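can u pls check wat happens w/ NAP
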Amino acid sequence: MPLNHVHQSLALRTQFEQLQKEIEAKGMAVKACVVDFVQPTKDQWQGLVDAVNEGHVSVLGNSSVVNNIGVCHAAPGFFDEEDRALCDDMVRANVVSTMTATRIVVPQMQAQGNGLILNMGSFAALRSLPFMSVYAGTKGFVKTFSQSLAYELEPDGITVSYIYGQWGIGSMLGSKGRSLFNPAPSTFVRSALDRIGLKCGAHDSHTSIPYYPHSIVNFVSSCLWDPMHAKLAHYGFGQHVYALGAEKRTHAAAE
Ligand SMILES: NC(=O)c1ccc[n+]([C@@H]2O[C@H](COP(=O)([O-])OP(=O)(O)OC[C@H]3O[C@@H](n4cnc5c(N)ncnc54)[C@H](OP(=O)(O)O)[C@@H]3O)[C@@H](O)[C@H]2O)c1
């Protein structure tokens, strides 16, 4: 990551120590705030407010925020069979807490007259993702929220972009193994940071598909009739992901 600023704030739930060490090794100061996006406490939000007020929101340059939150289904399934608590958690984390965090950082960006907000999204919000309906819905919220805010905040010098990720870029859903379409997280992040402000084949305003093999997938997907896309998503991608998800759960249960 081209991290070249003195301060940055991290709003992470867990495992920030390692990242903190890596950033400090590059000679930068770090302020770590722990916020549980599923069940945040008032104190946790206040910690983020304090960090912002101290000027610790710089991640990429000037004032910038990368919102990476994503709580997802353990595996594809029918909506009415889903764990209701998990569905509520997804909405709380991906929608409500995303909105709250944005509300905290925007005023400082407006005061400074600049800012960058990158919201991590998903192909699930591209068209539809049957059997992962709640996750797709939450990422759909983030997409139109980002696009709408982008127009609102443009006059204040603030850029907002929704980054489309495709299955396999991270650890979600038991992703494992790397391929052209399933890059290492660092490869994906580099693409995203190198192409800020570029659409890279995305159709909608203020959205980007920064990793080029995924741009090809988007092109092919956009040529398909929607019900066909949905069926392919379920029977091809969905089944594969389901198998990996099942493997991941079995592994976790055995530990
Ligand atoms: N992997 C994929 O296949 C895929 C595909 C498309 C889009 N995406 C999107 O890419 C982003 C990163 O996903 P990933 O694959 O890297 O999955 P991940 O490893 O599960 O990461 C999800 C992110 O959300 C954070 N998070 C989860 N629960 C949280 C909570 N209760 N409070 C605060 N933070 C919480 C995690 O922080 P901790 O590290 O502290 O847990 C992590 O930063 C997500 O927005 C996801 O929707 C992923």
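Residues 60-254 form a domain with the Rossmann fold fold (CATH 3.40.50.720).
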